Amino acid sequence: MRKHTKFTRRRRTRSRKYEKRLRGGQQPLKVAILLSGRIKGYESVLPKLQDIKNRYSPTYYCSLNEPEYNDYIDAFCKLFDISRDRMNTESTPQPDFLKDVKNYSPKSPHNCYSMFYHENKAFAMIERDIIQNKKQFDCIMYYRADTNSPDVLNLEMPKPNTIYVPKGHDYNGINDRLAYGNYDSMKQYCSLIDTLKSAEVMNGKHPETILKAYLDTQPLEIVRFKYDTCLSKDNSSHCF
């Protein structure tokens, strides 16, 4: 009869815990949420933000296009337990090529560039926490702070090389309001800013089409799931 060592038992225990998570067992996912660019309007979707906080007890990381930390940001940080070392505020640098971008819609290309810039900055704080402070996360999620939904957000254990994106609101590209995956997958997702180096990359496009063009070049599977969304400034009746 085969003798089982302590190492074998420990390995099997870890395996059972992992399988339990995959089956949606009682052990919760360890979730990090990154917020980027702006938080303006979060008050009108606060119940949804608090529901996500209560369901997953996530660790938040936030990078904003703001010249300095202010009272509005401080109130948001207190609500979601965001420590000062997990909040970055800086005005987005504006590369010279942005003034040459043509046929961009619906707003300025600078806003689009800023969103992707701060996604990358927020992810860098997660990366730092993982490396320096030995933090571990099963799931890393990008989420717009002004997003509301009639649906419950049910996260699953991410598969390798996979990004999970809500269905709908693609606008001939792919939904840019929410995405999640494991560390490696989200590192790729949040590295889009590294490809925005010329006007040609953004000409005639908008955030959703820029995001899709980028993801099409990455070795990632895109899984779509039901989570209808509307923004705090949007009165779309289909959302509720």
Which structural traits does this protein have?
240 residues; 7 helices; single chain; disordered C terminus; Spore Coat Polysaccharide Biosynthesis Protein SpsA, Chain A; disordered N terminus; five-stranded mixed β-sheet; 34% helix; two-stranded antiparallel ribbon; alpha/beta; 9 strands
N- to C-terminal separation? 62 Å
Number of strands: 9
CATH classification class: Alpha Beta
Could you name the CATH topology? Spore Coat Polysaccharide Biosynthesis Protein SpsA, Chain A
Q: Helical residue percent? A: 25-40%
**What does the largest sheet look like?**
5 strands, mixed
Strand residues, percent: 15-25%
Radius of gyration: 19 Å
Overall pLDDT score: 88
Summarize the helix and strand pattern as letters.
HEHEHEHEEEEHHHEE
CATH architecture: Alpha-Beta Complex
Return the domain count: 1
Number of distinct helices: 7
Could you list the spans in which at least 5 consecutive residues all have pLDDT below 50? 1-15, 234-238
List the helices and strands and how they pair.
Layout: H1 6-22, E1 31-37, H2 46-56, E2 59-64, H3 71-79, E3 87-89, H4 109-133, E4 139-143, E5 147-148, E6 162-166, E7 178-181, H5 183-189, H6 199-202, H7 207-215, E8 221-225, E9 230-231
Parallel strand pairs: 1-2, 1-4, 2-3, 6-8
Antiparallel strand pairs: 4-7, 5-9
